[in-house]
Amino acid sequence: MLREMCKSKIHGATVTETNLEYNGSITIDKSLLTAVDILHYERVQVLNINNGTRVETYVIEGEQDSGIICLNGAAARWAQPGDRVIIIAYCLINNKDAIGWKPKIILVDAKNKLIKNLPT
């Protein structure tokens, strides 16, 4: 049996911009992606803390240390700059390895700079 587990989480990021005319996805600062092991084009779920909704999309790698969190395409209608979000990537793990699994979770400040790795 495989279990779908939280692999990576960026907690409390702030949407910096939206781009309705872009062809889909969420652009995320490369330094944040590296910190939680999320790859370019990886599927993520984005939870909007301000309005309680969720959207799924894929990641586009943004400029390192830029602080960018940009909702693109249709997702641009789902959030506004200044909204706080949680970004989660999942993975499939066999049942044996799922026991004791530890995801990579980070907390960021209002400018999307890493504050700390959260214990799991």
From TrEMBL:
GO biological process: alanine biosynthetic process; pantothenate biosynthetic process
Cofactor(s) the protein requires to work: pyruvate
InterPro entries xref list: Asp_de-COase-like_dom_sf (IPR009010), Asp_decarbox (IPR003190)
Catalyzed reactions: L-aspartate + H(+) = beta-alanine + CO2
The UniProt record lists the keyword GTP-binding: no
GO molecular function: aspartate 1-decarboxylase activity
Post-translational modification summary for this protein: Is synthesized initially as an inactive proenzyme, which is activated by self-cleavage at a specific serine bond to produce a beta-subunit with a hydroxyl group at its C-terminus and an alpha-subunit with a pyruvoyl group at its N-terminus.
Modified residues (Pyruvic acid (Ser)): S25
Top-rank lineage group of the source organism: Bacteria
Entry's Gene Ontology cellular component terms: cytosol
Record-annotated active site: S25 (schiff-base intermediate with substrate), Y58 (proton donor)
Entry annotated with the keyword Transcription regulation: no
Keywords: Autocatalytic cleavage, Cytoplasm, Decarboxylase, Lyase, Pantothenate biosynthesis, Pyruvate, Schiff base, Zymogen
Listed pathway(s): Cofactor biosynthesis; (R)-pantothenate biosynthesis; beta-alanine from L-aspartate: step 1/1
Entry note: cofactor: Binds 1 pyruvoyl group covalently per subunit.
Cellular localisation: Cytoplasm
Pfam family, one: Asp_decarbox
E.C. number(s) listed in UniProt: 4.1.1.11
UniProt: substrate binding residues: T57, G73, A74, A75
Entry similarity comment: Belongs to the PanD family.
NCBIfam families xrefs: panD
Function noted in UniProt: Catalyzes the pyruvoyl-dependent decarboxylation of aspartate to produce beta-alanine.
PANTHER family in the record: ASPARTATE 1-DECARBOXYLASE
Subunit-structure text: Heterooctamer of four alpha and four beta subunits.
Alphabetized HAMAP family for the sequence: PanD
Protein name per UniProt: Aspartate 1-decarboxylase
Name of the gene: panD
